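Our preliminary data section would be incomplete without showing what the modeling component actually yields. Below, a chain of 765 amino acids is followed by its predicted structure, encoded as tokens that our downstream tools consume directly.
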Amino acid sequence: MPANFKKNRIFAPMKQSIITKVLVVVMVVVTVSTVSAQQTRWRDTTLSLEQRVNDLITHLSIDEKISLLQHQNPAIDHVGLKPYSWWSEALHGVARNGKATVYPMPIGMAATWDYALVEAAFRSIAVEARTKFALERQLGNYCDNKGITFFTPNINILRDPRWGRGMETFGEDPWLTARMGLSAVNGLQTRIGHNRILAAACLKHLAVHSGPEATRHEFNSRVSTHDLFTTYLPAFEYIVKNGNVQQVMCAYNRLNGEPCCTNNRLLQDILRHQWRYDGMVVTDCWALNDCWERDKKTPRHETYADAKAAAAAAFNGEVDLECGSGLTALKEAVETGLVSREAIDRHLRRVLRTRLTVGVDYPSEYVRLPKAAPRPLDMARESIVMLKNNGALPLCLPGIDQRHFKQEVRHDIHRLAIVGPNIDDVAMMLGNYNGDPINPVTPLDAFTRYAATTGKGQFELFSEPLNDLIEEPDYQAEQQMNTCFDHLSDYDAIVYIGGLSPKLEGEELDIDREGFHRGDRTSIELPAVQANAIKALKVRTGKPVIVVLCTGSALALGEIEDYADAILIAFYGGEAMGTALFEAIADASDGALFGRLPMTFYASTRQLPPFDNYSMQGRTYRYFEGTPAYPFGYGLTYNGSHTLRSLKYNPKTRSVTGILRVEGHPHEEVVQVYLKGDNTPGSFTKTLVGFERTEERQSKASDVPFSGLFYRHDVMFSIPVNYEVFRSYDEATGKMRLPAPGTKFKLLVGFSSDDKDLTEIEMTY
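Predicted structure:
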């Protein structure tokens, strides 16, 4: 251990989240081997990045160059390069690297419709990662998940709610995905100096990758060129062109017959030539093995004869770095002339550019952030979506100020039951690709803490897991449930917390049960055991039943809608999920915050096309012709009404302007702008082109009391319209083209994708 260890160690104050202070100082210490000044000119930041990269390459042998094209890089002492692994995860917090802050899963982030909050959260994640990286370097740890180059974010489109990894995405809409994905990239890649960034982001998985999990190593996604360019690629293109993203990951699956990591149409023609991307392309982990391995148990693509041929196809194409173990094959391909040394240098330049830009090998440095990091609670509050409320919420609990509500219509709750399989499951809250939070708060924790602080005799809390997520109860368990139902009749209200779990849905899981297969769902209905329990709670107790459902995507809720007085969707809400749920149910924060759906909630599985059909026809709100249970963009708030006035399109600013009038309970709204389809075959019915989450009570001067303690206030808004969405696919050229100037369009402005929530205005392009 260096003598100056104490002097250079990192100080990161920790409370509920890892980083909560205004100033975060990260001191990265790298012990450099004795090398000549000539061999370390690449450290000279007065030189251009290209000069430094080129100089470094001149001092490397061909074997050393090849060794840097796999995710686990060895040390190259004579030029001062330390070992490094490119594989780290930060899907919603630093993952698989000990104690870390855990935000809601990305599907919950998308439900906030708050791109500024998402960017701030990922900036915090990047700072936390650099802190951890410095400590691990001091301890000599160079293995996977200890670095600052992240395989994040996942910007695949959630085309079907049955996909188990839908929880990792930002939902079903290309523009919402693009905007949230760009925020994640910008946050992780916050600039910290000249040609320096906090961490490197990676767009994954390019492309057309959203299940089935069971066959992803052999699956061929057959997609029309129209769907490819109008649904599956826009988020990738937008972020590549606007975010300076350092890495793009090619997917496991085939795209129209060719594995994505050897697909020149995808990686060369589209990514490199059309989008002019010159950053790194990295394979999904061991994806190249799928191109050549023969496995009787797990069928693969088997498109190449052996590992050498697969390596040659990838590195003669656009792959720069393999996450996997194919260095021997790549070396053989070079030695036999299948891959040129010039190609190796081309790929290595891209890898080294990112390595130097992130600063993996730099000596001590200081990283300063001007603002405090957002808490996981901030994100969790905005991520919960309220689908139904017949007046049962908020619960009127003792000691909680609900001055925004007329007390004569409130029913005091002195005895509350919180039941269901997800009331106290930390693993459920954390989702997947997660860290280990210091102080996770489950729903049971939050309600129990409230009960402990309430005056004696004022409030009584009862809790019971009640039933399993999917297992039907045996005779003894059923008798216990019956006894519990009888007991619950004495309580004023019941909160049931169920839904799903990452134990049931996720990435390539080893599960094959009714309704679930290898991480995917085979149906979207709420498991029967839970539906039956919810119905029994209402019928046998007659008390208000508030249903909270945790999930990574949409659920069909037809069986329980008539039995639930309120329905909340909490997704997998991260370490502070319990606190956020308590606040939402009891209106314990000043104007409870709620999210909006980032996907369509269908009425039943029967409304969905076959899962392995990648055509967009009949999928998502953009192409669905039926009636959903709850539309994309939908979400309720407490006891407030909202209207839009003075709507118009401003061609100079390319934005929709207007006034949002909020009445009643102070709350935030998400104003959404859609482009109306043109009714041509294959066209979307409507598609999102802009949105903005209003800041709560940002126009305090216009607050006017009316009807007692209720308020009315006006919020002026200006929502930029994304012109890229106005493009259409040109069959003749095989490219997207913008409309001619002067073309007239219809915009739809409102509070969800449902026609009845939207007002039509005209614009001229």
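Residues 1-33, 697-703, 705-709 have pLDDT under 50 and may be disordered. The first helix runs from residue 5 to 8. Preliminary results of this kind motivate Aim 1 of the renewal.
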